[in-house]
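Sharing a chain and its predicted structure for anyone who wants a worked example. Both blocks are below, sequence first, tokens second.
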Amino acid sequence: MTGFLNQGLERLMFFYEDACGLNKMLEIKLKKAEETIADQGMIAKAQSQHYEDKFKAVTQEAKAAINKATEDARAKMDAAQLQCEHDKTSYREGLKGSVVISLLQARLKMAYEAKTLGFECPSWDVKAWEAKLRDLGGSPVEYPAKLAGEGPSKAAEEVADAEKNPGGDAGAGADGVVVEEGAAP
């Protein structure tokens, strides 16, 4: 029976050693698996950090590009608005100048025509109007020349004669003869 027991004991020792070897092998595999898992965890963490950093950089670049584009657009819009205001002001000033030039030309034409007819208004400052027209760059108004067959109107002659001869006949000279302007007496 000792042999049977020794043989059983040997068998148990074999199983024990086999189990211990298996246990050691499993411990080694477990350690390797833990190391592999730890390494993969560190790799995943590093990749995660890398992609987070990349995402932040891309996001910051995009935000910077959007801000720059917004600032550029705002600057262009402000410049366009300033140009528009400048153009409006320039147009208004040009329009005012044109209106003033037209008014001065009309006044000068009226004054010249009145002078041609023999009327002269002392309150009309024709020289100042001409100077102002030259300063504004307007084209000068031509003094109207009398046409060959055209003389002052009959009413204008009568008024002029009445001023010259207050007690006499309108349109008549000292001896009662009608005197035409530019004619020899």
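Comments welcome. Confidence is low (pLDDT under 50) at residues 166-185.
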